[in-house]
Specification:
Blueprint (H helix, E strand, L loop, with lengths): L7 E2 L1 H8 L3 H9 L6 E3 L2 E5 H10 L14 E4 L3 H9 L5 E4 L2 H9 L5 E4 L2 E2 L2 E2 L1 H7 L5 E15 L26 H4 L7 E2 L6 H12 L17 H9 L5 E5 H6 L3 E15 H4 L2 H10 L2 H10 L2 E2 L6 E4 L4
Parallel strand pairs: 4-5, 4-6, 10-11
Antiparallel strand pairs: 1-3, 2-3, 6-12, 7-8, 9-11, 9-12, 9-13, 9-14
């Protein structure tokens, strides 16, 4: 599959990829054996997760190991990004979302990645255990982060929560609330790419209050990082975005907290004791990192380094 392929596969496309019948694909989906989602009665399969699932189910010896590149992928975090540079690790960063990071780690295109995937009973660990069950990786906590809505300084549209993003009806049935009437009919939302965990998280939260996130107005070009979301609002290209407190603070924007998420680091065991990642680990324990986290705001580092998953190498 190439980079121009769609983010989601149909049943027919997945059957062709796996060289199975469509009936067998339906059986895999109904049994919960392959990552999938159902939209208006149609099964769709997230390409990045499917590729991670395929790589995670390989068996047998790897006779010619692929060297792990010095790349840290996954979800963007401004504090981690700063730490990678300040630690002198020499690691390069490629941020294109948590789900993209999982795929790159599973296929050995990255030595590690950052994750903040919301699960039924927690964060990240169940997804890693399912998709990378047979891969020798370690999942450790980096920080808990405040996530919510980023808006312009002074919150000019009086936004208090996701429900306020619903388009305002016109005509005699329109809301008489003075705050709502001061808003434009459709607020412009700074959306993220499909491979970003925040994209899926926001879609779920919006659905809970009766909003179709895909139907919101705003830039059609997705924001690739947390910083891009804040920049779009600071530059007047969007009215609101779903991001973290630290990114709002960096751009001197207002922030409406909605939840606390856990951001973890997923790393290959083979890379854990290599000098680049050891340099990062040493820096993460430093007073400099703690001071930077306090300066940015929205971080809780009290459980930094706690192991949440330790993959079986067998």
């Amino acid at each position: 599959m190439n980079d121009a392929a769609p983010d989601y596969l149909t049943t027919k496309e997945l059957a062709a990829l796996l060289r199975l019948s469509e009936r067998k694909v339906y059986d895999l989906a109904s049994g919960g054996e392959v990552p999938c989602t159902r939209v208006v009665g149609k099964l769709l399969f997230p390409r990045a997760e499917v590729m991670a699932w395929i790589d995670g189910n390989r068996s047998g010896p790897e006779t010619v190991p692929t060297p792990l590149p010095g790349i840290f992928a996954g979800s963007h975090d401004p504090l981690l990004d700063w730490a990678l540079r300040e630690s002198g690790s020499g690691l390069a960063a490629f941020y294109d979302g948590s789900h993209d990071g999982l795929t790159r780690v599973a296929s050995r295109q990255a030595m590690g990645c950052g994750l903040h995937i919301r699960e039924t009973d927690g964060w990240n660990a169940a997804t890693v255990a399912t998709q990378l069950a047979n891969i020798p990786v370690v999942l450790v906590e980096f920080a808990k982060r405040q996530r919510g809505l980023i808006v312009a300084a002074g919150n000019p549209h009086g936004i208090t929560g996701i429900a306020d993003l619903a388009p305002i009806s016109a005509g005699p049935t329109a809301s008489t609330d003075t705050t709502a009437s001061a808003r434009p009919a459709s607020l412009r939302f700074a959306r993220r790419q499909e491979s970003a965990a925040s994209h899926r998280m926001f879609a779920d939260l919006a659905r809970e209050v009766g909003i179709d996130a895909a139907a919101l107005a705003g830039p059609t070009q997705p924001m690739r990082t947390e910083g891009d979301v804040a920049a779009a609002i600071a530059e007047g290209k969007a009215d609101v975005g779903f991001g973290i407190a630290a990114s709002a603070a960096q751009m001197r924007l207002d922030f409406i907290p909605l939840l606390t998420e856990r951001y973890d680091l997923l790393v290959w065991r083979a890379a854990w004791f290599d000098p680049p990642f050891q340099a990062v680990l040493q820096f993460l324990r430093s007073a400099d990192l703690a001071a930077r986290a306090a300066e940015l705001g929205g971080y809780d580092l009290s459980d930094l380094g706690r192991v949440h998953f330790n993959g079986d190498a067998s």
